[in-house]
Amino acid sequence: MNAIKRQQGVTLTGLVLIGILLVLVASMAFKIVPDVIDYYALLRDVKATAQDSSLRGASVAEIRRAFDKRIQIDSVTSITSADLDISKEGNEIVIAFAYTRKLHLFANVSLLIEFEGNSSGTR
Question: Do 121 and 51 touch, CB atoms closer than 8 A?
Fold first, then answer.
């Protein structure tokens, strides 16, 4: 009798609920992770373009063309160079961007993610 009282574990119902929860979290992650990876690639391209020493005296159009080349290599499709806000602070080029992504999860449930970033490191 004592051995039965000390037994612990997960019931079949608990195991099924944990499995369902894991499947839901994994399916959300599969939908969210590609957009997050795309955002970080975009942020890396924005910072690299702003820090490019060959673009110090460049026009806005030249900066946009350089950015287009970078995102084409990284296959970034979230935004284009026309969506960038390009300015100068002192002698530094500052490039900022913001966009939203609406991800359909299931039925009539969607997730809206707002991405924003800039080349100066502040958000």
Answer: no
